[in-house]
Amino acid sequence: MSLPPGTHVIHDAIALPAPHDTVRARAVHRAEYPVVQADSVEEAVKHLRTVISDQRIALVTDGTVAALHGRELRHELHRQGVEATMTSIAPGEESKTMRTAERLLDWLADSRIRRRDLLVAFGGGVVIDTAGWVASVYMRGMPYVNLPTTLLAAVDAALGGKVAVDHPQAKNLIGAFHQPTAVVAATPWLSTLPARHVRAGLAEAVKKGVIASPALFDLIERDLPKILALDPATLHRLVHASATVKCALIDRDPYEEDLRRPLNFGHTIGHAVETVTGYGPVLHGEAVAFGMACAARISLARGWMTGTAHTRLLSVLRQAGLPCRREELPAPTGTEAVLAALDKIRLIRDGHLRFVLPVDIGVTAITDDVTDDEIRRALTWSPSPHSTQADTATIPARRGGETTAAA
Ligand code: NAD
Predict the structure, then answer these.
(1) What is the pTM of this model?
(2) Among 125, 147, 150, 290, which residue's Cα sits nearest to residue 230?
C-alpha cells in the first residue's frame, strides 16, 4: 500500500499474555519545571517566553492585581511578541469556589483555548489554586504557568501543583495535583502588597524554616525588618530560599503519599480556624501562624520542644505582627467550634488527627495522639501579667552576634 508522503506510520505488535494473567496499567508522571525569581517585569516575561511555543495564552488574574499590574504585564507581553486574552475573578478567598471555576471554564471554551494552549495564573494563592484547578480539568488537563503576586503564593502556593477550590464543608475539598510548566515570581509585583498580606505570606516562610531549614529561619530572624519593609533584594532572597526548601520537600514526596508531612505544620488548627470563621476574615497565613503557635505550645508542654526554639519561633511570629493567641485573630474563634471542626477532619481521616509538633528549628515530630485537652489549653492560652513566657519575648541575642548565611 502506498501512503501519501508526510503520513506518520506506526508499526506495533503488542504481545498478548496468557488469558488469566493480570493486566497491569502504568502511568508514571514526574514533572520538572523552573522556578524563577525575576527583578523586573521585563525579566519575568523573558522567562515566561522560554516556556511558550506557538500557544495561545489565557491569562487569569483577580480584580486587584489586574488594576495594579495587569496593564504593565500585558504591555510587556505585547512588547515581547506575546498576545494574551485576559479575564479576572473577584479578589479574595470567597472566589475560590466551583462557581468561579465554572465561569472560567465557560470563558476558556468561549475563547477557543485548546488543550495545548497555555493558561497563565497571575495573582495570589486564590487565583493560582482556582486557575490551576481549572487547568487540571479543562480538556483533561492543559499546561499552566504561575506568576505569583503575593508573598504567600511566591513562597508556597505557586509551587507543588496542589490545585483546589473550597467547598462549604471544607477548604480545598475539590482538588487535584497538576504541576505547572513554570513558576515566575517578580519582586516588583510584591511592592504593592498590603502589610497584612506580607505578614501572612511570611508565616508560610517561617513554617518552612522551622520544619526543614535552620538557614532559612536564621535569614528571616536576621532580616525581618527589611522583609516587612519590602526591601527588594531581601524579598528576592527570601522567595529564593523558601522556594528552595519547598522544592526539596516536594521532591521527596511530590504527590503526598506519606501522610506524615512536616509541611502541614500549623495547618491542623489553622484549617479548623479558617473553617469556623468562614474562609476569609482570617487569612490563610494568619491561621497557619496561630496554628504554629498552638502546636509549639503543645510541644513545649509535653517537654518535646526546646525552650530556645519555642522562644525563637514565638518571637519571630510576634515581631512579624502575626496572631499567636486566639484574641489576636481577626475574627472570633470559639474553642468548641475549633474542636468540632477538628473532629470533622478526624472523621475524614479515619479517626486520626495528625499534628506536626516542632522539636527544634529543623526538627519536627509527627503524632496523632494529641488530646482535646491539650488542644483546648493551647487554644485558650494567655500570658499571665508577669509572664516570662516566650509569647511575650523578643528575639534573643544571636549566638556570638553572628548569623549563618542563608541557603
Ligand atoms: P489571595 O490570592 O486572596 O491574595 C490576597 C489579596 O491580595 C487579594 O485581595 C488579592 O487581590 C491581593 N493581591 C494579590 N497580589 C497583590 C499585589 N501584588 N498587590 C496588592 N494586592 C495584591 O491570598 P493569598 O494569601 O495569596 O493565598 C491564599 C490562598 O492560597 C488560600 O486559598 C490557600 O488555601 C492557598 N494556598 C495554597 C497552597 C498550595 O499549595 N496550593 C499553599 C498555601 C496556600
Answers:
(1) 0.91
(2) 150
Q: Is the CB of 92 inside a 6 Å radius of any atom of ligand 1?
A: yes
| CA of residue 358 to ligand 1 center, whole Å | 26
Number of residues that this document lists for the chain: 407
CB 147, CB 127: distance < 8 Å: no
Q: What pLDDT, on the 0 to 100 scale, is given for residue 394?
A: 39
Contact by Cβ (8 Å): 205, 213: no
d(CA 73, CA 397): 43
Nearest-CA residue for ligand 1 atom 38 is 157
Cell numbers standing for residue 355: 499534628
CATH 3.40.50.150 fits domain 35-188 = no
- Cβ 150 under 6 angstroms from ligand 1: yes
Give residue 125's pLDDT.
Answer: 97
* Atom 17 of ligand 1: nearest residue by CA position: 193
- Ordered strands of the 144-148 beta sheet: 35-38, 182-186, 144-148, 118-123, 57-62, 84-89
pLDDT for the residue numbered 169: 77
Beta strand 144-148 with 182-186 is parallel
Atom of ligand 1 nearest to the CA of 69: 18
Q: Is 149 near ligand 1, meaning CB less than 6 Å away?
A: yes
Which residue numbers in the chain have pLDDT < 70?
384-407
Q: Note the pLDDT of residue 6.
A: 87
The pLDDT of residue 385: 63
161 lines ligand 1 (CB under 6 A): no
The Cα angle at residue 134 between residues 130 and 136, in degrees rounded to 5: 115
Residue ranges of the domains in the chain?
A: 35-188, 195-398
Give Cβ neighbours of residue 267 (< 8 Å, ≥ 6 apart). 288, 291, 356
255 Cα–ligand 1 center, Å:
22
Ligand 1: which atom is nearest the Cα of residue 200?
25
- As annotated, the active-site residues are 140, 162, 204, 246, 256, 260, 264, 267, 271, 284
- Tell me the CATH number for domain 195-398: 1.20.1090.10
Q: Which residues of 297-318 are buried (b: 16+ CB within 10 A; e: fewer)?
A: bbbbeeebbbeebbbbbbbbbb
- Cβ of 202 closer than 6 Å to ligand 1, yes or no, is no
